[in-house]
């Protein structure tokens, strides 16, 4: 498997020892390897040549089937919109998604009940290799209400050798009935040094700034770098936005633009209270004299974020966001 994230070694070892339930819930922030941890656990439970409490050996017949994406006792349940990218990042075979066509529905971000019904058939079948059957569901909060309800009974009383690993970065939005059937397995942010080293091995230049930009989430930092964001461009953002430069965000998808502005607003409020920046280098940030206009802007950004997936006209929308940002920052720089 490609995705060897060095900071998962210890959490994996702990999980193999601590797992008591047939259903685990890996919980923590996005972008730190929840899916990878869940999949490593699955591979380990299916491995046919490992010592008790040890991770998968990587070379037995089961591990080879697993790596080729054809293990008959393993099911990975993902929303359609995530499927190809997630399998690719895990080094598993995947089908290229169809190019978006007019009139065709966008791939869903939800895990739907049909997918869960297929899973139930797998759950009832006998284990092909006789060791275990493992289902990984990611992200668990993508299960829509009907799908979650269809899963409940099996999650509570799985037949024989069946085990579940659910992974979630939004545990609060999971149905309590799902949460209460799983043993929680928290996954924290990795150590900064380990994250920086890994980003460097992935070819990210000057990874410190991007790691900070993402609040310490190395996978997210890598995906931003792969999308073309550099440390220099990120650090230039606050002042460009303060000048009202629409170009600063013009190439960004609306959800990412909103996310960047929310991080900027958060840091400017910190500066207004004399604290250093969290997502941006302090030197990259203007020095607001009062937080009130920023707090009003924050509320506007939260409202806008709800519609970020479907703005009617993305470039007009970005233009108005930048104008709003400029006005808020300018007002915050004036003495009360
Ligand atoms: Zn093995």
From TrEMBL:
Enzyme class: transferase
Sorted UniProt keywords: Nucleotidyltransferase, Transferase
Tagged with keyword Protein transport: no
Membrane found in the keyword field: no
One Pfam family named in its UniProt record: DNA_pol3_delta2
Signal peptide range in chain numbering: none
E.C. numbers: 2.7.7.7
GO molecular function, a single term: DNA-directed DNA polymerase activity
Name this polypeptide is given: DNA polymerase III subunit delta
Source species: Pelomonas cellulosilytica
Gene name of this polypeptide: holB
């Amino acid at each position: 498997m490609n995705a060897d994230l060095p900071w998962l070694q210890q959490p994996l070892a702990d999980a193999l020892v601590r797992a008591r339930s047939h259903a685990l819930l890996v919980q923590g922030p996005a972008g730190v390897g929840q899916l990878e941890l869940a999949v490593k656990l699955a591979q380990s439970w299916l491995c046919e040549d490992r010592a008790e409490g040890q991770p998968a050996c990587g070379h037995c017949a089961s591990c080879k089937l697993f790596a080729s994406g054809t293990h008959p006792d393993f099911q990975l349940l993902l929303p359609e919109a995530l499927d190809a990218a997630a399998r690719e990042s895990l080094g598993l075979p995947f089908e290229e998604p169809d190019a978006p066509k007019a009139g065709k529905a966008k791939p869903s971000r939800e895990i739907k009940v049909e997918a869960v019904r297929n899973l139930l058939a797998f759950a009832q079948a006998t284990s092909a290799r006789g060791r275990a059957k493992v289902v990984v569901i990611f992200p668990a909060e993508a299960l829509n209400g009907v799908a979650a309800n269809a899963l409940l009974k099996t999650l509570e009383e799985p037949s024989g050798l069946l085990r579940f690993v659910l992974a979630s970065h939004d545990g609060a939005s999971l149905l309590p009935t799902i949460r209460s059937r799983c043993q929680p397995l928290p996954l924290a942010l990795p150590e900064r040094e380990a994250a920086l080293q890994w980003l460097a091995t992935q070819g990210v230049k000057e990874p410190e700034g991007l790691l900070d930009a993402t609040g310490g989430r190395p996978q997210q930092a890598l995906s931003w770098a792969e999308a073309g964001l550099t440390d220099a461009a990120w650090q230039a953002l606050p002042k460009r936005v303060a000048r009202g430069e629409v170009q600063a965000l013009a190439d960004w998808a609306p959800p990412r633009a909103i996310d960047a502005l929310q991080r900027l607003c958060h840091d400017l409020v910190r500066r207004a209270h004399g604290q250093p920046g969290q997502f941006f280098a302090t030197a990259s940030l203007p020095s607001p004299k009062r937080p009130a206009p920023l707090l009003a802007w924050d509320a506007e950004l939260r409202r806008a974020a709800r519609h970020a997936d479907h703005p009617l006209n993305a470039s007009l929308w970005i233009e108005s966001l930048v104008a709003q940002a400029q006005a808020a920052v300018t007002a915050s720089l004036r003495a009360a």
